[in-house]
Amino acid sequence: DSIDELTYGDERKQVSQLIVDVIRQVDYGRDLERQLNFFVDCRRAFTQLDMVTFELVVRVCLLVVKAYRFMSGKHNRKTSAFVKACLAYSHITIPSLDGAFLKLRLYLQCAQVALVNNMVSQGEAFLKSAVSLIPEVPEYDVDERAERKTKTKTEPEMLPYVLNLASFLLIFPGHPKNGPFHLVKGLLNAVQKYKPWEKPCVGKCKLYLGLVHLFAAFGQRSFPYHVSKVDSNDTLFGSNEVYEKSLALFTDTLLTQTLNQLHGIVEGKEKDRGAKTAQGELALDLVNILLSTMAMNKHSATLVVKLYRLAKSSGANAKYAERTVQNVERMKGTWYQDVIAQLKA
Question: How far apart are CA 216 and CA 45, in angstroms?
Fold first, then answer.
């Protein structure tokens, strides 16, 4: 009762940790419904403590995993209804949190738990909530409750989060009407509105490189990982001509946007050695992605050579450039021989 909006952060953290420790000790064994009711009561009692609310959602997700294990992944009508109730609890609870990244992490975790339990529509709802929240994340995270107000950049946390989200989208089933890439398209639209990425920058370029990797995986006949009993796009759309054309178009668009980001890093910063070096390193990253994921032809070979020359002129790490050349030398085929000849010219 003594905790309110005026309570300092350190005191809130200490009290929250004590409550979390108690919650973790409560275990009703196989009586999962009683366990869920306990979490409902805790949510009602500790509405002002983000740390406790976060823990409650995590515990409910673990409850779903426990139900999955009890049923060996084969839910009946009762356990299926229970899983849906747990997911509904999480969907209702997450928005009450103050921290944007607390919400984002939980939305992704809940989506993953939902997919494992073959609750595709519920998982999609969590993913859409996560994507729609990205533009609302501020450039700086300000902790007003600390004794000394702290201000930290959000981009270092946003980049790995979005890449992690993108890697999960690979195995998430496409939509029968909205297409196989509708969630990825939504993600791309959302990151454009995230304030630190409204203009070209190193972080946004790294994101695009990760997405190029993602779409290379989308082009594989069989994806590198799956969720048991869930059909991903390789099963739903594999060898489909419309899927192949859509993938090729999306990949070309993504490569164009990636190159725009790469060149935009140094716009207005021609004398900034750090920006030039970053551009060179990222150019080599893209070269190695293209070499490892795409078939070499006239277009891709020309692009690889241009990117390598850009990297060299930008002052990229010499050893990294040398290893890149060695990587090409190990590859077999006429196009790779032509590329090597131009890289060494």
Answer: 48
Average pLDDT over the chain, rounded to whole? 92
CA distance 36 to 31: 9
Calpha distance 311→283 (Å, rounded): 6
Q: How big is the chain, counted in residues?
A: 345
Backbone angles phi, psi at 148, to 5 degrees: -115, 115
| 11 CB-near residues (< 8 Å, 6+ apart) | 3
Q: What is the DSSP letter of 197?
A: G
Other C-beta atoms lying within 10 Å of the C-beta of residue 177: 6
pLDDT per residue as tens digits for the range 197-246: 999 999 999 999 999 999 999 999 999 999 999 999 999 987 788 899 99
| pLDDT class of 114 with cuts at 50, 70, 90 | very high
The percentage of residues in the chain with a pLDDT greater than 90, rounded to a whole number, is: 80
Pairing between strand 140-143 and 150-153? Answer: antiparallel
Mutual orientation of helices 202-218 and 273-293 as an angle, nearest 10°? 0
Comparing CA positions, the residue from 204, 289, 217 lying closest to residue 247 is 217
Q: What percent of the chain has pLDDT over 70?
A: 96
Question: Nearest CA to 261 among 273, 249, 253, 272?
Answer: 253
Give per-residue pLDDT as tens, 290-329. 999 988 899 999 999 999 999 999 989 999 999 999 999 9
Find how far residue 134's CA is from the centre of its chain.
Answer: 11
Placement of tokens 């150019």 in the chain: 283
> Running DSSP on this structure, what letter comes out for residue 173?
P
Tokens 């103050």 sit on residue: 98
Please check the confidence at residue 6 and state whether its pLDDT lies above 50: no
Is the Cβ–Cβ distance between 18 and 51 less than 8 Å? no
pTM for the predicted model, two decimal places: 0.92
Tally Cβ neighbours within 10 Å of residue 270: 8
CB neighbour class for 23 (10 Å; exposed up to 12, middle 13-18, buried from 19): middle
SS3 26: coil
CB atoms under 10 Å from CB of 78, counted, come to 11
